[in-house]
Structure prediction request, 599 residues.
Amino acid sequence: MKRKDIETKYHEERQALFDGLRRLDRRGFMKVAGAATGAVLGRSLVHPMSFVPISVASAATGGKVERFRFAYISDSHLYEKKLNERFVRSLLRAVDDVNKMDPQPDFVLYGGDLAQLGQPGELKLGAEILKSLKAPVRMMVGEHDWYLDMGEKWRELFGEPSYSFDHKGVHFVVLNSVIEEDFWTARKMTPLERMQTVAGLDNALQNRFMVGAPQREWLKKDLSRHAPSTPVIVFSHSPLYKYYRPWNFWTDDAEEVQALLRRFDKAVVIHGHTHQLLTHRIGNIHFHGMLSTAWPWPYAPEGLPELTVQMNRADPFNPQDGCGDGSVELHPDGLVDKVYGLWNRNPVTITRGYMTSRGRTDRPDAPSLSSY
Amino acid sequence: MYAKRVAIGALLWLGCQTGSGAGQTPRARSERAPTEETVEVKLCDDRTTTTVPKDMPPTRENGQRVADSLMSQWKREHPNQAWEMKVTQSHPTIPPPADNRKVLEGAQRTDQTYALFTERDVLTWERETLKLVQEGARVFHDAEAMEGTIGVSCDMCHPDAANTHPETYPKFQTQLGRVVLLRDMINWCLEHPVKAPRMEPDDPRMRALEAYIIAQRKGVTLEYGKH
Prediction:
């Protein structure tokens, strides 16, 4: 085990005390108040912009943030193999990509929409294919997985859709952000009709996505156990902001969810659903989209976040163009570099420097074929 | 007698609008030739008829029964009658066709037969044009209607017909090595991503698809040849 120098130890102890203070009730506060006083005074002397105290602070919360990488695969929209082999082959390609990564990623996030119409056969096929990943898989649910049986089969295969875990000093949260208010009962829709309606991106019969009050309450509790210095990464299928309402590139209660993340120094949201290079920043929260393995979506006619550098228009003659998978590199400062592993093109990396400088540095190349 | 007909007519109209009570057993029997004791009532489609007793009291209840009888017949013969409504509800953002009410103004319109349009003409143009566009929206979102074999429909890559840019055709399509029209690209998509047979240029579905794709770009400048 690596030895810690005296200064690190001192900062760690002090930070642990601060973390404890944040979670204290009144009685607990009285107990440690005396011990805290000296440390609090000490801390106020540290220059707030200094690099050292910040990194030490994150080292002292739930463990040191180590540099690591995780991969993602998303939006495969599988039909059963006998109906459509193309989407199956694309998912297999993504699995191959990830299995070839060296070193292997710490885990693989599956970003939702494993199935196209939520059929048990589609979900089982997807689960079977994902089993061949060498790294452990973290599953997220998408609307295409959910609305045939309201998540019954998905839960049976993969467990509850919202959960959290800690990894190398980072707190991860996985949400089910594709909850829609009931539009089907009044219209007397069958489960398949409900599924097909939600599966139509431009179908206005459905409602808007949301995380919903009960899940927000759970999220609030879950996050309350963590100090603001803990880097938080949230996985959601829909973007946790409002981009384009008619296509549900949208989460209706996005502001409420963002409010829960605001107190953290570093918060990153990685989302699926939009099938495109998509970059956004709201205050401390950095948002990154994921590529689909099945097909790219065009950019919406309005609402595109300013930080987004669009990808070149997809070549319609190449069925896998604009599709792909990718990875996320976690740095000890708690921020991420997001890699879009576009098939048949050079990968595009959205660095943390690009995000923190609000696009002034590290800007990826502009597209030559802009979207219509 | 006139008043009575109007009363039934009004109820029939109500029946048409709400379609309520379809499937109830009506007192009036449909498709029966009128006799001396009965009178024939016709639906607003000018085809569907039913007969009612001549001495039937013209109450609202009786009128409703007649309306229900006619509507249930009509619905049997038009099982997919709600398709337009479905399209309108699913795709409410389809831009409306151009407003042509201006042709109803101006002094010259009265001295030339061609210019003698009525409000009914203007409404007909609008409704018929929109209907073709809506039919296009239906086909666009329906793999089966295109005889697709792998469950893929146009909207899966082109929500609201985005990124179809009909205003850029004709243009040289590098991958095909020739100048193409919108319909050539539709056929290419049918054959490849959709895995459906090509459509003849005058196939009603091709015409409808073109109509929908073009309608979605209302207001965009024509820029043929643009890449």
